[in-house]
Write a structure and sequence with these properties.
The protein is mainly beta and 189 residues long. The chain has one domain. The protein is built from 2 helices and 17 strands. The strands form 3 sheets. Strands 1, 6, 7, 8, 9, 10, 11, 12, 13, 14, 15, 16 and 17 form a 13-stranded antiparallel beta sheet that branches. A two-stranded antiparallel ribbon has the order 2-5. It has a two-stranded antiparallel ribbon with strand order 3-4. β15 and β16 form a beta hairpin. The longest helix is centred in the last third of the chain and has 6 residues. The N and C termini lie close together (10 Å).
């Protein structure tokens, strides 16, 4: 299962999404670009966020910048991987694993680490009621995690980097293209 936010993954004829307790449908274009619209009606079963792991670039023994990919791990073995698309302006969200650790020789290495406590301490154990895409200027640039009893949390891409925070952080971010993204479609995890 793979859901690309603004990223062409080829033609897909069938989706199998387990979480929404309502009806859903998908739409695909007839040309080479696949347009997937997942619309759900009904309520989503809340998911407990257990941990967030990340692919990090390590250089000279130190973490170099922000994580390159995040994997949100929910109860029941469900996961949502978030990463910057190749254009540096859009986000890819899917259920794939993080990259295995590897060496980049003199450029350092890539590792996998649990970053829940260091970067997202307030998110551990939260019940997520809904996940939605964030759109800006027609591009899917992030996700909004609607928390069952609390303020939403956002993870987005801008300037080839992952960013995160609450609604105030999203609104006050210095967007390269000016427009603050808004929620668009539900994502199934």
């Amino acid at each position: 299962m793979r859901f690309a936010l603004g990223h062409d993954l080829g033609r897909v004829d069938k989706f199998e999404w387990p979480l929404f307790a309502g009806d859903f449908h998908e739409t695909a274009c007839q040309d080479t670009t696949t347009l997937r619209t997942l619309a759900a009606r009904g309520s989503m079963v809340p998911m407990r966020l257990n941990s967030i792991t990340a692919n990090r670039h390590i250089f000279d023994g130190q973490v170099n910048g922000k994580p390159l990919r995040l994997l949100l791990n929910f109860d029941g073995g469900r996961a949502l991987r978030l990463q910057v698309a190749g254009d540096g302006e859009q986000m890819i969200a899917d259920d794939g694993p993080l990259d295995a650790p590897f060496s980049m020789d003199e450029h350092g290495q890539m590792d996998i680490a649990d970053v829940t406590g260091s970067l997202f301490p307030t998110l551990q154990g939260l019940e997520v009621a809904q996940v939605e895409t964030l759109e800006s200027d027609g591009k899917r640039v992030g996700v909004k995690l609607s928390v069952a009893r609390g303020q939403p949390f956002h993870i987005w891409v801008d300037g080839d980097e992952l960013h995160w925070g609450d609604g105030a952080a999203l609104s006050s971010h210095d967007w390269l293209h000016g427009a603050v993204p808004t929620p668009s479609e539900r994502i199934k995890v």
